[in-house]
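Help needed: design a sequence for this.
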């Protein structure tokens, strides 16, 4: 993606945080005709071990009737994108009038290598990890379902492991316009959910203050 140096988050922990907090991703590859093909889906992130040879590992699944899994067999390299909070920024945050609006946003792009998971046990483990991310209490209900029903449900999906080989994290928060930061922080802090999250990231990164939060 277009990534000016002032917005390039070199610290991978920011990307990891964004992917965990905003797990609904876009998996992008090409169909058999060479056109882009996109599936929107939640992904489970697990940090890779040094022996894995990957920056991180993403786990997910799609419906068997979705041909995306077949495209991943033919062309295992794909792109996964995550979009974090985003919001309009009014030029009212500047001390002078010769300014224009912009849009602030946080995004992560991952180049991945896909491996399919299509055995029942592997898909069951994968589903339990995604359940654990979003509704751990549902795991007991899943285990109590009729075995014929669960086999049918597992047969209707194809799982995949996406090994992250390249990672970009863009934190566009007007870092290069320090004269806007105090008014911007105040405006976002009183805004909608996305705006308040951006205000939190400004604080986390120390934008508009002398020091970032402890540990950043």
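Sure. Designed sequence:
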């Amino acid at each position: 993606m277009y990534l000016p140096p002032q917005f390039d988050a070199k610290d991978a922990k920011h990307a990891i945080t964004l992917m965990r907090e905003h797990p609904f991703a876009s998996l992008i590859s090409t169909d058999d005709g060479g056109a882009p093909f996109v599936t929107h889906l939640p992904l489970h992130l697990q940090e890779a071990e040094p022996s894995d040879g990957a920056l991180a590992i993403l786990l997910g699944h799609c419906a068997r009737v979705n041909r995306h899994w077949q495209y991943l067999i033919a062309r295992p390299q794909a792109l996964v994108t995550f979009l974090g909070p985003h919001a309009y920024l009014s030029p009212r945050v500047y001390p002078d009038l010769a300014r224009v609006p912009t849009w602030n946003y946080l995004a992560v792009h991952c180049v991945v290598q896909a491996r399919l998971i299509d055995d029942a046990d592997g898909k069951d483990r994968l589903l339990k990890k995604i359940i654990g991310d979003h509704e751990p209490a549902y795991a007991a209900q899943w285990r109590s379902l009729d075995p014929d029903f669960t086999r049918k449900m597992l047969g209707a999906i194809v799982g995949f492991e996406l090994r992250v080989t390249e990672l970009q994290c863009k934190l566009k928060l007007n870092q290069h316009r320090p004269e806007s930061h105090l008014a911007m922080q105040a405006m976002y802090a009183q805004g909608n959910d996305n705006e308040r999250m951006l205000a939190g990231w400004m604080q986390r990164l120390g934008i508009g203050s002398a020091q970032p939060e402890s540990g950043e």
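Residues 5-177 form a domain with the Pnp Oxidase; Chain A fold (CATH 2.30.110.10).
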